[in-house]
């Protein structure tokens, strides 16, 4: 028996289906189901019974969930004993991220959060990739991380923003419909300069979909990207809503859609108050930005 299993059982009881519980925890549904079954085998009891499309607790399951809540609250209380500081300094917050996502922190999240909590001291823990982020959270070198989702099942994830990747092209460009990622092979693209965070982000995306375009322009002058597209130099692969004025150009979605989910991630332990505040702040800031983009 472990804390992860207890958290999964409690979430399933709260949400009524394993699918909804997995979505709330942002873990794979098969992983959650497997953990619950393993706990049932270990205890030798059935915790859930099917009811329509969902599940309900069995009588013994109700008892287990009641005790699981007590155990999880006790663990949080014990971990909370290490949070208090007595040296008079402001609270420390360590946030891990990759080079590609660091701009999300330094560009808008940290400055806005610092205005709300000027005493908080935020340190960015730079990591070389997802595995390094996972290690930093597991061994306590970071309180939170901003990362691409999904993440391993032993980490808690809070989706913040889903970004759709679109192709912005001159009106005369002919492409196969529906537009698939394979259409990018050999296509001339306006791309960020090599070695920068934006280029690393785009290269990661292209590797994920297995596409090999041809760089027509490589520049970090983002204000000029759409100008090069209008001039017919190449097309642009970027996020819907992250471009200022695409008037006169053709914006196409991919089929199946290409998207990127970004979220805040932490280990299953009680977060320091400043980390909980940052998590709540980030969710609210992301909601506000989505509202502004749709106005």
From TrEMBL:
InterPro entries: LysR_HTH_N, LysR_subst-bd, WH-like_DNA-bd_sf, WH_DNA-bd_sf. This is DNA-binding transcriptional LysR family regulator. Belongs to the LysR transcriptional regulatory family. Gene3D superfamilies: 3.40.190.290, Winged helix-like DNA-binding domain superfamily/Winged helix DNA-binding domain. Keywords: DNA-binding, Transcription, Transcription regulation. CDD domains: PBP2_LTTR_substrate. GO terms for molecular function: DNA binding; DNA-binding transcription factor activity. Residues 1-58 form the HTH lysR-type domain. GO terms for cellular component: protein-DNA complex.
């Amino acid at each position: 028996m472990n804390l992860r299993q207890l958290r999964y059982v409690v979430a399933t009881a709260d949400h009524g289906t394993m699918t909804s519980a997995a979505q709330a925890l942002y873990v794979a549904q098969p992983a959650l189901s497997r953990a619950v079954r393993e706990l049932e085998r270990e205890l030798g009891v059935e915790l859930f019974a099917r009811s329509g499309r969902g599940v309900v607790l069995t009588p013994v399951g109700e008892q287990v969930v009641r005790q699981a809540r007590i155990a999880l609250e006790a663990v949080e209380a014990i971990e909370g004993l290490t949070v208090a500081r007595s040296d008079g300094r402001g609270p420390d917050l360590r946030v891990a991220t990759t080079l590609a996502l660091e701009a999300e922190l330094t560009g808008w999240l940290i400055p806005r959060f610092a205005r709300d909590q000027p005493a908080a001291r935020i340190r960015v823990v730079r990591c070389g990739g997802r595995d390094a982020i996972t290690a930093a959270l597991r061994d306590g070198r970071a309180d939170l991380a901003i990362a691409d989702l999904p993440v391993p099942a032993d980490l808690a994830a809070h989706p913040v923003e889903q970004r759709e990747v679109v192709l912005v092209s001159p009106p005369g460009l002919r492409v196969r419909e529906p537009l698939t990622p394979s259409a990018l092979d050999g296509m001339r693209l306006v791309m960020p300069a090599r070695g920068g965070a934006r280029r690393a982000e785009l290269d990661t995306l292209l590797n994920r979909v297995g596409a090999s375009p041809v760089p027509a322009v490589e520049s970090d002058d983002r204000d000029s990207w759409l100008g090069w597209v209008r001039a017919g130099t190449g097309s642009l692969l970027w996020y819907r809503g992250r471009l200022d004025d695409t008037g006169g150009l053709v914006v196409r979605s991919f089929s199946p859609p290409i998207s990127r989910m970004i979220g805040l991630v932490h280990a299953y332990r009680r977060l320091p108050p400043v980390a909980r505040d940052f998590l709540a702040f980030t969710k609210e800031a992301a909601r506000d930005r989505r509202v502004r983009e749709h106005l």
